[in-house]
């Protein structure tokens, strides 16, 4: 089995490396090129590197957009976990047809396209006074990601033996005390995995931001990147420099939580 799978694995790894690696290499190289070298055939890999694009990108607009992205990602992660943790625990400890119905509804909600929610949410947020506010985008992103987070959290809570809660109850612990002191520490790997994935998804928020923020000056990083494309042309080095700079926080979070993601997604896949 291993002998026949070896070459196949190698070919798949090479193809995936080329498919994902070449665009990233092109982005990185273009960010260090001048505008004249971007599409010059003799400057594809050999060119005089410049940092003009990075110097121009590091201005007040980038810092404002970075702060907005951080607030949206952190706020969405906190609100999503606050809803998904008790919901996932409830679905893990409940038996019967209600669980199947609940999981089916969550899967349907997760499959709804994000574009289908824009117009209804725009009208609702207009009545609630949440348009052009960061809170509105955080609420919209949380509503979008809660079904995904609940489905992901449920297997981690199912992996916690009920006998631990029964032992805590015998010792006099209340339901809340058993949950926070026994269940949640055991399932902390799942909470960290879910929180990391929600943070990474919220970091790339774009559609809700460009529709619910009425002032372009309050856009997050993803919308700031889109603003670099205009009818007068595209500043490719500047666009690629912004792409590299906006990816640095994501790479840091991914590097710090890689082990949690690997172990957590493996547990969730087999439960």
TrEMBL record:
InterPro entries noted in UniProt = BP-dep_ABC_trans_perm, MetI-like, MetI-like_sf
Could you confirm whether the keyword Oxidoreductase appears in this record?
no
* Cross-referenced Gene3D superfamilies: MetI-like (1.10.3720.10)
Chief subcellular location: membrane
Q: Which UniProt keywords apply?
A: Cell membrane, Membrane, Transmembrane, Transmembrane helix, Transport
ABC transmembrane type-1 domain boundaries:
66-257
Q: Kindly name one Pfam family recorded for this protein.
A: BPD_transp_1
List all membrane-crossing ranges: 12-29, 70-89, 96-113, 133-153, 197-214, 234-254
Q: Into which family does the record put it? A: Belongs to the binding-protein-dependent transport system permease family.
The protein here is known as Carbohydrate ABC transporter membrane protein 2 (CUT1 family)
Which lineage do the record's taxonomy fields give for this organism?
Answer: Bacteria, Bacillati, Actinomycetota, Actinomycetes, Micrococcales
